[in-house]
Amino acid sequence: MATKKYAVIGIGQFGKAIAKVLSSKGFEVMAIDNNEEIVDSIGEDVAYAVTLDATDKKALQSQNIAEFDAVVVAIGSDFEKRLLCSSILLDLQVKRIITRANGEAQRIILQKMGITEILSPEEEVGVIVAERLSNPSIVSYLQLPDDYRIAEIISPKNCINKTFGEIDLRDKYKLSLITLKKEIHVTRGGKELAEHHIMGVPDSKQILEATDRLLIFGHIKDIDRFLQINT
Questions:
Q1: How many CB atoms within 10 Å of residue 164?
Q2: CB 22 within 8 A of CB 29
Q3: Which stretches in the chain have pLDDT values below 50?
Q4: How do the domains of the chain map onto residue ranges?
């Protein structure tokens, strides 16, 4: 199977993080920016690092941009450039275009252009931070359509030392247990650290410990109800 190819345009903090993660997963990544110093800083982390003006159609064509499986437009503060770049990618019939939007107005404009995959990193981070402040039991979560989510939660105090059969997530709370993460102590750099590692799918006889974390799937209201009752 051929390695998938991705291009990331705009190598600020956001774009650089995307490019590095994709590259670390074994994908062929091209990082594009108009700042030569920024391009040089990521050169060793990706397959290709190119300095060019992403609002120049011929420059993008010279990199065979239409052959990439997806292109992420992560240009930061200059919305006009981000808009023009996205428009050019549409004209070049790039298979998949993912564009950054800062705010609802930008999102609407991009949608009207025909961009269907839009990232709003500041907004998404803000929602997660607010959620964690309002409900400290939630470590992280993945929002899904129709108000469903996958949530990683700290063991609720009323469930500690009970088996999953006794907790009865599915019948009592309409939730599904995906997996269990257990605390493992490791030594790194002479220091003992606590990390949480996935331990597979627990059976009904598995006892929940205070240091465990649960990955559960369900509707937001059912997750909230479970935490309200048991925290």
A1: 19
A2: yes
A3: none
A4: 5-121, 135-230
pLDDT tens by residue, 177-222? 999 999 988 887 778 888 889 988 899 999 999 999 999 999 999 9
What per-residue confidence (pLDDT) applies to 1?
A: 60
CATH homologous superfamily of 135-230 equals: Regulator of K+ conductance, C-terminal domain (3.30.70.1450)
Distance of alpha carbon 157 from alpha carbon 197, whole angstroms: 20
What is the token pair recorded at 145? 């359509």
Give the max Cα distance, the chain: 64
3-state secondary structure of 60: helix
CATH topology of domain 5-121: Rossmann fold (3.40.50)
| 97 half-sphere exposure, CB direction, 13 A CA radius | 24
Q: Cα separations (Å) of 30 from 33, 79, 221?
A: 10, 22, 42
